[in-house]
Design goal:
alpha+beta; Multidrug efflux transporter AcrB TolC docking domain, DN and DC subdomains; four-stranded antiparallel beta sheet; 14 strands
């Protein structure tokens, strides 16, 4: 008993198999990542270290150079790029494609922890996953409002940015246009000299006073109380009362030798949103993260921010959203896929003119497309413009096997006068090997693409797999579903009458055109097969046409360019010009 015979005799088994493919395919498609194109970005880790108040030269000598020496030997690292600027060190580590960034980050952290004796002002290094296109955020939003920039900067640093960074898929959240509050202490050199004090002494006294400390705990009955001393200096009055005198000397306060001013740090960036000062947040995605889901979560968090900070006069405004471009691009390809399916069905209607035959052949389309999603999920592929283009490309090939099998069943049933079961079994068996070889040769075209490595393989490998998977599923449909449905639904259609006859009337000239084309093809074949000279002429004509087509070939490129509705202008000024 072959496959076709078992399908005809046990239709319930075939129906269950098809339903399982559709159900599992639907479940798998809900887990697939939606993105613009396959992830071809190079794995990147960014080491960010804050060194408050330090000049770029100090940052480079104390942090950047020492860190680079310790991370130079990490596994799978290609190269690094470092940036030392006022108060911050950035080291960008580029890894080989396919590197597990979680393991790489753990190894990088261990190497950085070996650096000892860092200045006390250096904060703990932060390691974040980032795209190799670190200058292009996937989402931007602005914070403006009635509050002053210093207050909004505190919100951004303490609440907004940390909460955005905790969202799954977010690699980092940076913000520009902020101003940090600082207490500026202006010393009187003569007064310091008179009291035999130095700037280092003053700094030591301030650091010793400006801190909160835990004072252990004590119990009282059934209660346990935690004791802590609060010494953090928050106002100018607190700084003025700092005692700076040495032991066994007259009491001296900071206000006796210096003037304290409540100001803000030197700004590193300025932001204007429609002419209004504000803070702009740049959200970067993790490598491999679902950009659409990540942005959806960010927007949900923004709604919460509006509820929390709205009463305080804060306004959150979306500036740039990359998911809109991705959604539009994917939607266009989805529409093209639907149009391809409709066109295939129309072509089947034009040439078959039998709704039963059209339905039997058309069953291969959903089975093949939905079943392909299972393979995409198992191999970790995503839904993007290239994968959907692969599905659209395979639509025309999906129905080929079903048409060949169905036409042969039709011939055995009505021309050889066999029973419906015998026609389905014999008709499928007769063309089975030819259909199998045809499918294998089509799939063989895409095998070399599956073997490609690097960025090209990442881009076009999924397309080759999707087309191959779809046509193999269509082969399964042609050998099982088509004979099963034909054994129960195939009937000789009666001549159309009434309105249907009027609709079908314009299609009759197509039959005459088809017969004419077939006759001309047979005559051309007979002509070129007579004599060696004619065969050589045919070969020369084909090669000439190939040469002409190559000559008029349009320009080549790696990938087509597309606009993302974002205009970025970068202006470089002379060295030494201040921000204002």
């Amino acid at each position: 008993m072959n496959v076709a015979e078992s399908s005809v005799r046990f239709p319930i088994t075939v129906i269950v198999r098809v339903l399982l493919v559709i159900v599992f395919g639907y479940v798998c498609v809900t887990f697939l990542t939606v993105e613009l194109k396959p992830d071809t970005e190079q794995p990147v880790l960014v080491v960010s270290t804050r060194f408050s108040g330090a000049a770029p030269e100090e940052v480079e000598g104390e942090i950047t150079t020492r860190f680079e020496e310790n991370i130079s030997g990490v596994s799978n690292m290609l190269y690094t790029q470092s940036y030392s600027r006022h108060g911050e060190s950035l080291i960008v580590v580029f890894y080989k494609t396919g590197t597990n960034l979680d393991l790489a980050a753990a190894e990088l952290q261990r190497n950085i922890d070996r650096v000892r004796d860092l200045p006390r002002e250096v904060e703990k290094p932060q390691i974040v996953k980032a795209s190799d296109r670190v200058s292009l955020p996937v989402y931007q939003f602005a914070l403006t409002g009635e509050s002053d920039i210093v207050t909004m900067s505190t919100w951004a640093d303490k609440e907004i940015a940390p909460r955005i960074r905790t969202i799954p898929g977010v690699g980092d959240c940076q913000f520009d246009g902020y101003l940090n509050r600082e207490m500026r202490v202006v010393f009187d050199a003569e007064r310091l000299k008179a009291r035999r004090l130095t700037v280092a002494d003053i700094k030591r006294f301030i650091d010793r006073t400006n801190l909160n400390q835990s004072g252990s705990y004590f119990t009282e009955g059934t209660w346990e109380w935690t004791v802590r001393t609060v010494g953090e200096l928050l106002t100018t009055a607190n700084f003025r009362r700092v005692r700076i005198s040495k032991p066994n000397e007259p009491v001296v306060y900071l206000s006796d030798v210096a003037t304290i001013e409540d100001m803000y740090e030197r700004p590193e960036s300025l932001c204007r949103i429609n002419g209004v000062p504000g803070i702009i947040f740049n959200v970067y995605n993790q490598v491999g993260a679902n950009i659409i889901q990540t942005i959806d979560q960010v927007e949900k968090e923004l709604k919460i921010f509006r509820q929390e900070y709205g009463p305080m006069g804060a306004k959150f405004q979306k500036i740039y959203d990359q998911s809109n471009y991705i959604r539009d691009a994917v939607q266009i390809v989805k529409e093209s896929l639907i149009e391809a399916i409709i066109l295939v069905l129309l072509v089947l209607f034009v040439f078959l003119k039998n709704w039963r035959s059209i339905f039997i052949v058309a069953t291969s389309i959903p089975v093949s497309i939905v079943g392909t999603f299972i393979g995409m999920y198992l191999l970790g592929y995503s839904i993007n413009v290239l994968s959907l283009a692969g599905l659209a490309l395979s639509i025309g090939m999906i129905v080929d096997d079903a048409i060949v099998v169905l036409e042969n069943i039709y011939r055995h049933l009505y021309e050889e006068k066999k029973t419906i079961v015998a026609a389905c079994v014999d008709g499928t068996r007769e063309v089975g090997m030819a259909v199998l070889m045809s499918t294998l040769t089509t799939a063989a075209v895409f095998v070399p693409i599956l073997m490609l490595k690097g960025e090209v393989g990442t881009l076009f490998g999924p397309v080759a797999f999707i087309v191959s998977c779809a046509i193999f599923l269509s082969l399964f449909d042609a050998f099982t579903v088509v004979p099963m449905l034909a054994s129960r639904w195939m009937r000789r259609e009666k001549e159309p009458t009434g309105l249907l006859k009027t609709i079908m009337a314009p299609l009759r000239p197509l039959d005459a055109i088809g017969r004419t084309v077939s006759e001309w093809l047979l005559l051309a074949l007979q002509f070129f097969l007579k004599g060696l000279g004619r065969k050589v002429l045919l070969i020369v004509a084909v090669l000439t046409l190939m040469g002409i087509s190559y000559a008029i070939l349009p320009g080549m490129g790696y990938l087509p360019t597309g606009g993302t509705n974002l205009l970025r202008i970068q202006i470089e000024t002379y060295e030494g010009i201040n921000l204002e």
